Amino acid sequence: MKHSNGKKILSGVLFAAALLAILVFILFPIYWCLVTSFKPSAEITSKNVTYWPKTFTFQNYVEAWIRSGFSNYFKNSLFIAVFGVVFIVILSILTGYALARFKFKGKNVFMLILLCTQFIPGAMLITPIFIIFKNLNMLNSLFALVLVNTTFHFPFNSILMRGFISGIDYTIEEAAQIDGCSRLGAIRHVLLPILKPGIATIAAYGFISCWNEFLFALTMTDGKAMRPIAVGLAFFIDEMGVHWGPLMAASILMSVPAVIFFSLAQNQMVKGLSAGAVKG
């Protein structure tokens, strides 16, 4: 009996140690980025490694936000992410509803096509998409990036939304229609409130995807006026080398909206992910 208890304690200690090692492995780069953002340039490039700033400075944040035009990058990314999320959520709800509630010929094939779009690497489509937007005179446009992000991310989110809607009993909508609601009215007043966890899930996925998108943003924008934040980070590396302080400060600033978004939406996201895992 004692031998059995000793084994349980040992396995528990080893498991906790493994989790702690994984946690340190994940969090240390974030900690290092944060600490470096407050170090002066001389301390960053010094041969003596310091794990805590000897002298705290906000100069890196000032340089990143003002002198490097990062505030403009930030606004551009916010525009792309917010409007991208709006379009992704609206299209995903409409498409997911059609797939969940209507029966039509070729529905399974259509769903398969939506899923197969996720297998196509974005790099393969850069040239044709660039040519299309060039012919439309939409290069170097934030709205073009909104369209690109929406096009790439709404198919997967539509499949997710279809799973969420399928898990809701249709009789609720029928009861609302009997009481005088139109189909759209039933969706608005009955279905959408129940779908809040699912909407939060796809909104979070869409926000992160739009916020972090780099490849098309780099290809389709030119100059500081239209660069989003992900592309702006790359320009802290130039012919003079890597500007570590401003780069780390900019990286921290870039992560703030995502952290805030997930903090506000985490409860709904957990509910949504659980619902999607149970029924879909």
**Structural class, from helix and strand content?**
mainly alpha
Q: Please bin the fraction of helical residues.
A: over 70%
Q: What's the N-to-C terminus distance?
A: 45 Å
Strand percentage = under 5%
Number of strands: 2
Largest sheet entry: 2 strands, antiparallel
Strand order of the largest sheet: 1-2
pLDDT average, as an integer?
84
- Unreliable stretches (pLDDT < 50, length at least 5) are 276-280
By DSSP (H or I, 4+ residues per run), the number of helices equals 13
Helix and strand run: HHHHHHHHHHHHEEH
Question: Helices, strands, pairings?
Answer:
Blueprint: H1 2-37, H2 41-44, H3 59-67, H4 70-101, H5 107-116, H6 126-135, H7 142-166, H8 171-178, H9 183-194, H10 196-212, H11 215-220, H12 229-234, E1 237-238, E2 241-242, H13 244-278
Antiparallel strand pairs: 1-2
What does this structure look like?
With 280 residues, this protein is mostly helical. It is 75% helix and 1% strand. The chain has 13 helices and 2 strands. The protein has helices at 2-37, 41-44, 59-67, 70-101, 107-116, 126-135, 142-166, 171-178, 183-194, 196-212, 215-220, 229-234, 244-278, and strands at 237-238, 241-242. Strands 1-2 form a two-stranded antiparallel ribbon. Strand 1 and strand 2 (241-242) form a beta hairpin. Helix 3 packs across helix 13 and helix 10 runs antiparallel to helix 13 (244-278). The radius of gyration is 24 Å and the shape is globular. The two termini are 45 Å apart. The model is unreliable at 276-280 (pLDDT under 50).
